[in-house]
Amino acid sequence: DVKVTQSSRYLVKRTGEKVFLECVQDMDHENMFWYRQDPGLGLRLIYFSYDVKMKEKGDIPEGYSVSREKKERFSLILESASTNQTSMYLCAARDSNQPQHFGDGTRLSIL
Amino acid sequence: QQQVKQSPQSLIVQKGGISIINCAYENTAFDYFPWYQQFPGKGPALLIAIRPDVSEKKEGRFTISFNKSAKQFSLHIMDSQPGDSATYFCAASRGAGTYKYIFGTGTRLKVLA
Q1: Angle at A92 between CA B92 and CA B72, to 5 degrees
Q2: Which residue of B has its CA nearest to A100?
Q3: Domain residues for B86?
Q4: What does the pLDDT average to over A62-85?
Q5: I need a labelling partner for A47 at 20 to 30 A (CA). Which of A76, A101, B25, B113 fits?
Q6: DSSP per-residue letters across chain A
Q7: Domain CATH number, residue A27
Q8: Which has more pLDDT, A49 or B99?
Q9: In chain B, which among 34-63 make CB contacts under 8 A with chain A?
């Protein structure tokens, strides 16, 4: 099974800061995803990438951007963090025709 | 049409009982329905999945029942154990290989010892 590693389990940042969330997968999978998880709302897709330097917007991309310079690494960027971006962020990876595998999440607090 | 409605939001079951979580979808193009299990502090992990060409799939104590005409599917956990206490998410997609899963809002299950 693919191992998806998110670099930080907990992160506290201030309003207006630029925030980077990092995700690395170990199986050379083409597809990677960023979700946010909020109580009562489930998992909502922010962005996904189907190849190096390729990205597509998900359902809630506003306020976020992503970067995929290498196949194994997918970064989520909060350009100017706001309190409503306090959430659990989950990264996932998937090979073609296989289900998504998730990392353990980064709990981000914006003060 | 893109929603997946999941119920209940929370569920308390006695040890040894049956836990049932239901999901309903609208988009008839969906053809892959996975269930994920998430323990506190962990990411969701794939538990079991079904395609609409079968009405039921069983793996150990976990069974998915699928009703294509009603556009509903459900997870049954037989002989529920305290170790099953977790949040469960259903999802739907157009094929396992598609980019996008539509997730339900989750069910928090607590199994009492």
Answers
A1: 10
A2: B46
A3: 4-112
A4: 96
A5: B25
A6: ---EEES-SEEEE-TT--EEEEEEESS--SEEEEEEEETTTEEEEEEEEEETTEEEE-S--TTEEEEEEETTEEEEEESS--GGG-EEEEEEEE-TTS--EE---EEEEE-
A7: 2.60.40.10
A8: A49
A9: 34, 36, 41-46, 49
Q: What are phi and psi of B82, to 5 degrees?
A: -55, -30
Residue B96 sits in a domain whose CATH number is 2.60.40.10
Residues B43, A98: C-beta atoms closer than 8 Å: no
- What average pLDDT does this structure show over A83-95? 94
How many domains does one find in chain B?
1
**Number of domains forming the structure of chain A:** 1
Give yes or no for a contact between A14 and A110, defined as CB atoms under 8 angstroms apart: yes
Contacts of B108 in chain A (CB under 8 A): none
Nearest CA in chain A to B98: A97
Tell me the pLDDT of chain B averaged across its residues: 92
Q: Which domain holds residue A23?
A: 4-110
The residues in B 77-96 lying below 8 A from A, measured between CB atoms, are 89, 95-96
| Chain A residues inside the 8 Å CB shell of B9 | 40
Q: Any bridge partners for residue A6, and if so which? A: A23
CB within 8 Å: A99 and B46: yes
- Report residue B62 as tokens: 């976990």
pLDDT in tens, A64-73: 999 999 999 9
Q: How far is B104 from chain A (nearest CA, A)?
A: 6
* pLDDT at residue A10 is higher than 90: yes
* Cβ of residue B33 closer than 8 Å to a chain A Cβ: no
